[in-house]
Each structure stands twice: as structure tokens, then as C-alpha cells.
Backbone:
């Protein structure tokens, strides 16, 4: 294989915007598990004489995402008709944006990580543009027949186009994972890939290292998971390298290929279309959009903390890089962690309670953080441990029962009589009995063996069924022996 070649990758990311209604009509935007062709109307079915009306909330979400990516939102933009024939595109054209998109020129900083979650590198991918459009329907192929479901037709999409800044499948996956975090953080999209809410087209080409020319590319269409994106790029890179070796140079013309998950290879679909093939022209039924600079600035100021800022925040609390990503990537887990940290004001304590103990019990029970104890329930448990109502070890037992039963910490503590004994007189009585019962340990302590006190403390803890406050047991034992 030609070792002096580098791979050049650019992506187009399609993300469904999380609105109640579709992009240009009032139909339900949630087509998941709905009966085919039930969330449709004359507008999204492209009937003659119907007029599309832009969804203001979809536009606002696209603006939020544009600003989160550091893009410049155009003061004026408009929609265009993009013409192509496909059975699931009812009107025969897509309402998209071409020469005047919503936003341009942003960037995303992202990290490369090893299998253990450690950071191995920092990268930046530039964003060329972000524009809005409506989705097509869905085709299901069964033998020689094809079924059309138009429920998804008209779903609001944002398309995010990158510069060709990615140099490996690993970089492409790491970048899209960070992009997904941003989409979710600013509430632009649920980005649920299982439901097809985020999809990728990957353009890949080769060139000799040290050159700047972009050669003819192969565009891989409709990749619907990070794993598919990774495998498709790896396969196509290997195929293009073999082709370069065979022909002594790059492909002569751009092509479009499809990825077949079951066979884990690409297949030729067609020569790559150009803008002229789509016969773009301004959408005559929708007036141009205008964005006031002050409004855009207010939206920018209202953005929540972005994943990179959250990472820095959690690292400052003492979490390592892998733990920070765990918290950022799971909203339910983050809610619990934040609540426990706010209560304890101790990063290490919150990590121990939430990321070590709680996650351990949840994993053992095959449950997610969303199915486990609520933030308030975990705060109640943390408070019970902090105030000495129960010991730390008893807290683990309580937490395991909380995961298993869904009951509150206080209910479990009361029902099982797990309250920690912190009363000085009760502990003094236990200590006196322990001293009488363990004379050999006392003699060893008098002979200078400090570890012998552990035997006395252990006896007290066993006798109290683990409910004596160990800190107070130690203090009262030493005071008693010294007197």
C-alpha cells in the first residue's frame, strides 16, 4: 500500500430538531412507533395549493446550535427548493438552504481518548455552515417491493457541514460524539441515534502527504451510528488506497456509495451530484428570514454550559477525565452527582457515593441512572451518613436496597433499625464491656501494640450490629484507657 497517502474526511451531519410539530406544518413531529402514514397532512405530503409555514421553535433551536458552534448567524437568509426525485419525497423537492444558509464559520474542539478514557490528543474541526431543511419519509424494502411511510416527511432538520479537517475514522467518531453532546446540551435535538435522530454522510478522499489539493471524493450516505461511521470510513479508506495503488493515482470523478451494515462494506450508488443537478432556486412560498443582532446576542447569552465547560468544571472538582465524561454523557447521573456534591461540598465524597457505589449497584442490577434513586433520595442518604444517623458501611447497604426497592433512605433505615448509635453513655457502656471481655488485647496495648485497639473496636461494632459510631468508639475507648 502507498504509505505516503493521507486520508481527508469531511462530514455532513443531519440532526432532527426536538420540536412538537414538523418544520412547515402542524403535524406531530414524533413519528416513533406510530402507525405508518398517520402523522401527515396535505402540507407535508406536498399537495398542490398548500403553503409551508416555518416552525419558529425549530428556527430558534437552529440558531442556538449555530451559536454553540461559534458560527456567525446571517442577518438575512432564505429557504431554497432542492429538486430530486425519490419515492419518499412527496413534493419532488426538499425545502432546504443553499447559497444563503442560516450560519457559517464555526468550530468544535474535541478530544481523542484511549480505551480507558484517558485523553490522547486535542483536535479542532472547523464548521463550514449550518442550514435548515425538512426530512424525507422512510422506505422499507421487502424483496421486490418497497413500502413508503411518510410520517417522517417534513421533520425539521439541521444540516451541519464540516471542513475536510478530519484525518481518521477515530477523529470522525470523536468529533461527532462531541457534536452530539452539544446538540443535547443546548436542547437543539435529542440526537437519539436509535430512533434515527442523528445521521451522517462522510466524504473521504486521499492525497499525497505535503500536498494541499483535494482529490475526487467518495461520499458514504446515511450512516446512523458511531460504529457504522467508524467501520464505513475504515473500509472506504482501505478500498481507495487499493484503488490508488492499482491506478497509480486518485479516482477520476466523485462518487456516492452506500454502507451495508450486514456485509460491512460499501456499494456504488451513483456518480456524485452537483448543485446544478438539484436546480436550486429560492423557495417562492416562504419570505426571507431576518435576525436582529440584539436578539441573537440574547440567545447567545442564554446558552447553558457547553460540554467543554462542564468538563473543566468537573475536573476542577477532582474527577478524572473518564469520570467527567461519565457525568456529562448521562443527564440523570449528572443530576444525582450535582445534587450530592451540592450537599456534601466534597468532590471525592460525591465521586465515591455516586460514581463508585451507586453505579456499581446499578450495574449489578442492570439498571440505568434514570431507573435508580432520584437526586433527592441520594441527598437524603448522603445527609444520613454525614450527620451520623448511619455509618458509611451501613450507607452502602441502604443504597443497595434503594436501588433494588425504590424506597427512600429514611424508610429503609427506620424499617431495619439501622440508626447509628452516637449517644456517648451508650457507647461508654459498650466500651467498658469490651475492655472486660478482651483482657489479652488490653495487655497487648499496654505493651505498646497500638493495633490491639482494633480488636476492642471490632468487638464493640459487632456487639452493636455495626450501629455504633466508629469515630466515637475510638475516642471514648482511648479516653477510658488513659483514665
Residues:
Amino acid at each position: 500500500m502507498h504509505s505516503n497517502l493521507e486520508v481527508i474526511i469531511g462530514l455532513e451531519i443531519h440532526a432532527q430538531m426536538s420540536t412538537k410539530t414538523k418544520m412547515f406544518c402542524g403535524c406531530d413531529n414524533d413519528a416513533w412507533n406510530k402507525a405508518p402514514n398517520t402523522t401527515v397532512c396535505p402540507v407535508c405530503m406536498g399537495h398542490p395549493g398548500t403553503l409551508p409555514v416555518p416552525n419558529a421553535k425549530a428556527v430558534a433551536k437552529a440558531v442556538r446550535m449555530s451559536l454553540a458552534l461559534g458560527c456567525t448567524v446571517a442577518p438575512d437568509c432564505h429557504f431554497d427548493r432542492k429538486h430530486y426525485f425519490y419515492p419518499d419525497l412527496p413534493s419532488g423537492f426538499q425545502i432546504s438552504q443553499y447559497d444563503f444558509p442560516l450560519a457559517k464559520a464555526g468550530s468544535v474542539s474535541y478530544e481523542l481518548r484511549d480505551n480507558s478514557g484517558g485523553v490522547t490528543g486535542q483536535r479542532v474541526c472547523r464548521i463550514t455552515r449550518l442550514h435548515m431543511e425538512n426530512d424525507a419519509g422512510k422506505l422499507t424494502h421487502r424483496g421486490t417491493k418497497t413500502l413508503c411511510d411518510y410520517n417522517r416527511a417534513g421533520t425539521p432538520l439541521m444540516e451541519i457541514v464540516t471542513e475536510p479537517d478530519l484525518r481518521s475514522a477515530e477523529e470522525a467518531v470523536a468529533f461527532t460524539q462531541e457534536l452530539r453532546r452539544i446538540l443535547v446540551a443546548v436542547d437543539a435535538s435529542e440526537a437519539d441515534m436509535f430512533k434515527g435522530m442523528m445521521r451522517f454522510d462522510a466524504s473521504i478522499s486521499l492525497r499525497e502527504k505535503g500536498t494541499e489539493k483535494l482529490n475526487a471524493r467518495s461520499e458514504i450516505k446515511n450512516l446512523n451510528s458511531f460504529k457504522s461511521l467508524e467501520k464505513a470510513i475504515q473500509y472506504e479508506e482501505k478500498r481507495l488506497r487499493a484503488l490508488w495503488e492499482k491506478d497509480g493515482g486518485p479516482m477520476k470523478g466523485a462518487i456516492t456509495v452506500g454502507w451495508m451494515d450486514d456485509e460491512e462494506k460499501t456499494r456504488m450508488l451513483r456518480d456524485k451530484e452537483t448543485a446544478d443537478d438539484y436546480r436550486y432556486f429560492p423557495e417562492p412560498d416562504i419570505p426571507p428570514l431576518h435576525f436582529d443582532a440584539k436578539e441573537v446576542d440574547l440567545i447567545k447569552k442564554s446558552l447553558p454550559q457547553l460540554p467543554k465547560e462542564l468538563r473543566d468544571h468537573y475536573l476542577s472538582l477532582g474527577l478524572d477525565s473518564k469520570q467527567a465524561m461519565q457525568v456529562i454523557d448521562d443527564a440523570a447521573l449528572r443530576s444525582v452527582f450535582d445534587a450530592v456534591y451540592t450537599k456534601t461540598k466534597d468532590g471525592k465524597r460525591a465521586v465515591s457515593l455516586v460514581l463508585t457505589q451507586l453505579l456499581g449497584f446499578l450495574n449489578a442490577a442492570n439498571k440505568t441512572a434514570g431507573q435508580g434513586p432520584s437526586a433527592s433520595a441520594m441527598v437524603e442518604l448522603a445527609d444520613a451518613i454525614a450527620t451520623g444517623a448511619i455509618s458509611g458501611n451501613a450507607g452502602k447497604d441502604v443504597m443497595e436496597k434503594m436501588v433494588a426497592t425504590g424506597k427512600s433512605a429514611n424508610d429503609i433505615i427506620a424499617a431495619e433499625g439501622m440508626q447509628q448509635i452516637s449517644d456517648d453513655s451508650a457507647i461508654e457502656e459498650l466500651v467498658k464491656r469490651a475492655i472486660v471481655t478482651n483482657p489479652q488485647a488490653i495487655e497487648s496495648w499496654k505493651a505498646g501494640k497500638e493495633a490491639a485497639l482494633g480488636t476492642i473496636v471490632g468487638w464493640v461494632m459487632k456487639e452493636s450490629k455495626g450501629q455504633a459510631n466508629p469515630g466515637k468508639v475510638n475516642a471514648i475507648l482511648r479516653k477510658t484507657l488513659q483514665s
